[in-house]
Amino acid sequence: MKFFVDTADLAEIKELAATGLLDGVTTNPSLVAKSGHHDFIALVKEIASIVPGPVSAEVAATDFDTMMAEGLYLARIARNIAVKVPLTPAGLKVCKALSQQGTMVNVTLCFSAAQAILAAKAGATFVSPFVGRLDDIGENGMQLIADICQIYKAYPQFKTEVLVASVRHPGHVIEAAKMGAHVATIPPSVIRQLFNHPLTDKGLAQFVSDWQKTGQKIPIDSDGKVQPLKSGRA
Ligand code: E4P
Fold first, then answer.
1. Is there an atom of ligand 1 within 6 Å of 28 CB?
2. Is residue 39's pLDDT more than 50?
3. What distance in Å separates the CA atoms of residue 14 and residue 97, rounded to the nearest whole number?
4. How many CA atoms lie within 13 A of 220 on its CB side?
5. Residue 232 within a domain
6. Handedness of CA 129, 140, 7, 20 (dihedral sign)
7. Residue 9 Cβ < 6 Å to ligand 1
8. Among the four residues 37, 59, 96, 179, which has the most C-beta atoms within 10 Å?
9. Mean pLDDT of the chain
10. How confident is the model over 161-208, as pLDDT tens digits?
11. Is residue 128 part of a domain?
12. Among the options 14, 34, 84, 202, which is catalytic?
């Protein structure tokens, strides 16, 4: 399963990219506004230079002609840009045109299996079903993921990857993985939650404490160089 980080915050992206666990980034107009960055193009260019995987940058317009022009502009920023378009008739028309030119397209604001079928037929690279927002209105966001994964599996000609979006907690990530979703785009705070388990912390503290009681050290130099093994092996 690929993990994308769902943010436009450069500091967060840099910190999480350093873990080596990031496979891409998704942004949207609201995340860009929240970032406080005032040069969207420069922001996207920098993000694309930090993370080699797909970086989603969303068009601002809603009409075909302007979205098409914006999409072509965004795609030229970097080779790893995925142009994000809304799941509307005009957005899917842009998706088809851009994907036919070899541009990655992330079709966003997906809330039904019917919409996901249309996105796949339009040649989307990714479709982004928003599970959290469905949960927010009392629907079952993860059931949508299950339905889409089942449908896509039935049609090998569909090349679209399911990019689970609007993730609210680790449970969404785990359930999405169980269903075989290709990608989860995860807020930085939720990524950090994935690392944490109280028994890991407790167990590590015990290992450290018990090792200190042995009074031993692994013989490395203070500058981190590895000493030759006593057995004489290099
Ligand atoms: C993907 O980038 C989506 O835009 C994002 O996950 C939406 O999340 P939200 O529902 O918390 O705004």
1. yes
2. yes
3. 33
4. 6
5. no
6. negative
7. no
8. 59
9. 96
10. 999 999 999 999 999 999 999 999 999 999 999 999 999 999 999 999
11. yes
12. 84
- Structural element, H or E, at residue 34: helix 29-35
Q: Is residue 233 part of a domain?
A: no
Residue with CA closest to ligand 1 atom 11: 166
| pLDDT above 50 (res 234) | no
- Residue 217 lies inside a defined structural domain of this protein: no
Is 178 marked active-site? no
pTM (two decimals): 0.93
Q: Ligand 1 center to residue 166 CA distance, Å?
A: 4
Work out the percent of the chain whose per-residue pLDDT is above 70: 97
CATH code, domain with 7: 3.20.20.70
Number of domains in the chain: 1
117 CA distance to ligand 1 middle (Å): 20
